[in-house]
């Protein structure tokens, strides 16, 4: 019997997107190599390794693609054309809308796909952690800008303040997987922004 190889019209970019959605939905370890090969067009093992190198390399490429698209929301935090508060609100609101979109898996791939790996896959945990760290650092910079521009009190503990919003951001993935609605999450966002307002600079 002839061995199944790469489909004649194999589109690598499309395959990366399909694999990204699979990892995003199920996580790294629950997604088997056999499932990946089948999902990407019944690739043979030889074709899979030739195209992607390994399951780990494929995951890393998928996560990079995710961060280059969904992760672009972090750039909203750097928008100096608006206030730091407005940038924070816009980023969180658009994140909610994206993570709850019915056209993609729910939640955040960087939060959900690389957790609880066994000892053999700690490199995956590290890669996912680095992706999450990118967002955390962007949040810190946004809060620091709020302090520097006197939107927030000079006594604001920037790291702790950013951690509050980072924790909310990561918690969205679980809430959305548990069925939270757009209306509920938007109300929660409006509430958490009152924390920002409570620390607003009262400069006369």
From TrEMBL:
Keywords: DNA-binding, Transcription, Transcription regulation. It comes from Vibrio porteresiae DSM 19223. It holds the Pfam family TetR_C_13. Residues 16-62 form the HTH tetR-type domain. This is TetR/AcrR family transcriptional regulator. The keyword DNA-binding applies. InterPro entries: Homeodomain-like_sf, HTH_TetR, Tet_transcr_reg_TetR-rel_C_sf, TetR_C. Gene3D superfamilies: Homeodomain-like (1.10.10.60), Tetracycline Repressor, domain 2 (1.10.357.10). Residues 90-176 form the Tetracyclin repressor-like C-terminal domain.
